[in-house]
Amino acid sequence: MLTIEDTCRARLQATPEGVQQFLDMRFGLSVHWGLYALIGRGEWVMHQEHIPAVEYEKLVSQFNPTRFDAQAWVELIAEVGARAFLITAKHHDGFCMYDSELTSYQVTSTPFGRDPIAELAEACHQHGIQLHFYYSLLDWHHPDYRVNWPAYVEYYQGQVRELCTKYGELGGLLFDGYWPRFDFTAETDYFRAGGKWDLAGTYDLIHTLQPKAMVVNNHHVLPLKGEDYQAWELDYPGENTVGFNTTEVGKLPLATWFNVNRGWSYFSGEQQVKPADQLVAYLTESAKREATCWLNVGPTPGGDILAEEIRELRKLGD
Q1: 11: closest CA among 178, 165, 202?
Q2: Three-state DSSP class for 278?
Q3: Tens digit of pLDDT for each residue in 111-143?
Q4: Helix (H/G/I), strand (E/B), else coil: 41
Q5: Is the residue at 80 inside a domain?
Q6: Which end of the chain has less neighbouring CB within 10 Å, N or C?
Q7: Mean of pLDDT values over 64-81
Q8: Would 8 be classed as within a structural domain?
Q9: What is the sign of the dihedral through the CA atoms of 281, 287, 288 and 290?
Q10: Tens of pLDDT along 21-58?
Q11: Can you give the pLDDT at residue 48?
Q12: For residue 5, is it within any domain?
């Protein structure tokens, strides 16, 4: 039975200025980047390869992307014509790619020791690029997710507050990991939430701290009250070729998300970078459906965006 959390308590939405800013954007670049880049087999590798948390945690001592250059990333975004940037602040593995005061399981605990999101935020604001964050509600690492649900909700909402107060003006936040249509199995039962997420409270928190921020939740159902746009993952609005998107199209602004390479995050070995013609098609077909298009790349463990991805993005920009 499909059960969708009721967010009717949500009082706020993004301001008209924030909505128009999003509509004018039309094209954004996103990155999936985290500890999983070190393994090079996708952002779901912890789950797919049954890596225990205590083993996965050892990656923290290895993460040191010395070639990371926030200015170079943002200059590339501007060069190829994108007007917004989104980065994974926390993925399902629970590791935080920003300096959080609520956990030590974060990027500033690595040999790298820096907050890449702070550096990217500064560069985005300098270049007039909207800054968006991805945040996973699902957490395979945090113990409270499975044993103390109220404490976990307090934790994740505290991190949302951090993201809304530490990095200047935000263009939006994308939530993932809440999937009402997901069929739990014995293997995925630990994905299951321990109660309600208090999405209404989370959305009002964001819109209070960041009035222009556009909130979206990758839950694959029609938008809920308090959300500001509807997104399709690897599909165009109203289509479900991948098997988990909704074919229902609501009345809010629309967006699509497509990969430049073979997956959302870095894969080592042979690359499968899509040619610029295909990337152009993603943008033009999305525009025909009045949808903003996000294209995604997966930076390497060293902090680079792959040369092959840059080459095709630049062709797109041309």
Answers
A1: 202
A2: helix
A3: 999 999 999 999 999 999 999 999 999 999 999
A4: strand
A5: yes
A6: N
A7: 97
A8: no
A9: positive
A10: 999 999 999 999 999 999 999 999 999 999 999 999 99
A11: 97
A12: no
- Counting beta carbons within 10 angstroms of the beta carbon of residue 202, is it exposed (0 to 12), middle (13 to 18) or buried (19 or more)? buried
Length of the chain counted residue by residue: 318
List beta partners, residue 259.
296
Name the amino acid, one letter, at 85. F
Placement of tokens 């039975």 in the chain:
1
Contact 167, 118 (CB under 8 A): yes
- Determine, yes or no, domain membership for 2: no
Q: What pTM, to 2 d.p., does this model score?
A: 0.97
Identify residue 44 by its one-letter amino acid code: W
Q: Point out which residues pair with 216 in neighbouring strands.
A: 174
Cα–Cα distance, 301 to 34 (Å, whole number):
8
Give how many domains the chain has, as a whole number: 1
Q: Quick check: 309 pLDDT over 90? A: yes
Per residue in 215-233, pLDDT (tens digit) is 999 999 999 999 999 999 9
According to DSSP, residue 42 is labeled -
Can you say how many angstroms the Cα of residue 127 is from the centroid of all Cα atoms in its chain?
A: 21
Tokens of 283: 């943008």
| Residue keyed to tokens 């501007």 | 78
* pLDDT at residue 1 greater than cutoff 80: no
How many Å apart are CA 82 and CA 85, to the nearest integer? 8
Across the chain, what does the average pLDDT equal? 97
CA distance 66 to 53: 25
What's the one-letter identity of residue 259? N
Domain of residue 87: give its range.
Answer: 16-317
We report the CATH number of the domain holding residue 56 as: 3.20.20.80
**CA dist., res. 314 & res. 318, Å (int):** 6
- The burial of 128, by beta-carbon neighbours within 10 Å (0-12 exposed, 13-18 middle, 19 or more buried), is given as exposed
